[in-house]
Amino acid sequence: MSATNHLIRTNHDDGVIEIGLNRAPVNALSPDFLFDFKDLLDELSVDPEVRAIVLTSSFKVYSAGLDLKEAQEFNLDQQYAIVEGLNVGFLSLFANPKPVVCSVDGAAIAGGLFFVLGSDVRVAGPRTKLGLAEVRVGADFPIGPLEIARATLGPDALRRLMLTGLPLDAVDAHRYGILDILTEDSSRDRAMVEARALAQLPPQTYASIKQQIRGDTIQIIEQAIRDGANRSDTGWFSDETKPAMQRMIG
C-alpha cells in the first residue's frame, strides 16, 4: 500500500490496483488532486504488471466536485489551473489502456461524476446519486469533461443531467445505462470481482479495442488542449458564476 495526500494505492493479487480517492471529507476537486490522479494513472498505464484498476472511496460522498466556497473566489490563474486539472486528469482516466472499474456508493456530482463516466465498468450501491450540476452553478463544461460526457451518456441522460443540473438516484442511473451493476452488498467487493475478471482478458487486445471505441473522443480533447482549451482569455467563469454558486451554498 502507498499513499499521497489525495490518493491511496493498494496492490492486490492478479495485477489489480485499487486507487482510493482520499481528499477528505468529500473528495472535492482541486488542481493538485487532479494532477496527482493523472500522474498515478499515467504510471499505471505503462506498468506491464498492472492488469486492472479499481476506483474506490471510503467517504459517504464519493466526490462533490468543486468546493464552491473556494471556487467562487478563484482568480484567473486558479480558474486556468482547475480547468487544466479537469481536462488532463479525466482524459488520463478515459484514455487509460487498462480496464478501470469504478465502485461508488454515495454522491458523485458535477466534476466528481467523471470518475464514474471515465471508467469502463461502474458498480454502485443503493446510496448512489449522480449529477452534473454545472448549469446550476453558472459554469459550462471544460472540453475534457464535455467530450467524455458526450461519449459515455445516451442523448436522454445527457439532456436530463446537463440541462437540469438535478441528480439521478441509483435506480434511474442504472435505467439510463450510466451504471452497469447495482448491488445491495459492498460495491467495492463486487467491483473487485469485476476487475479480476477483466484482468484475465488479453491486455493488448483490450487496450486496442478501448482505443477503437474512444480514440476519436481522445483526439478531440487532445487537439483542443493543444489549441489552448486550458487557458481561455476570459477564464472559465462568467458574471453569472459567483452569484449562482452563492445560491447553491445557501
Identify the CATH homologous superfamily: 2-enoyl-CoA Hydratase, Chain A, domain 1
Summarize the helix and strand pattern as letters: EEEHEEHHEEHEEHHEHEHHH
What is the CATH T-level topology?
2-enoyl-CoA Hydratase, Chain A, domain 1
How many domains make up the coordinates? 1
* Number of helices, where a helix is a run of at least 4 consecutive DSSP H or I residues: 10
Low-confidence stretches: none
Radius of gyration: 17 Å
* Strand-residue proportion: 15-25%
Described by the principal axes of the CA atoms, the overall outline is: globular
Mean pLDDT: 96
Architecture, CATH level 2?
Answer: Alpha-Beta Complex
Q: What characterizes the major β-sheet?
A: 7 strands, mixed
End-to-end gap: 40 Å
Quaternary organisation: single chain
Give a verbal description of the structure.
- The protein has 250 residues and is α/β, with parallel strands linked by helices.
- The chain has helices at residues 31-45, 68-71, 76-94, 114-117, 143-152, 155-164, 170-175, 187-199, 203-226, 241-249; strands at 2-3, 7-11, 16-21, 52-57, 61-63, 100-104, 107-109, 121-124, 129-131, 168-169, 181-182.
- The protein has a seven-stranded mixed β-sheet, with helices on both faces.
- The N and C termini lie far apart (40 Å).
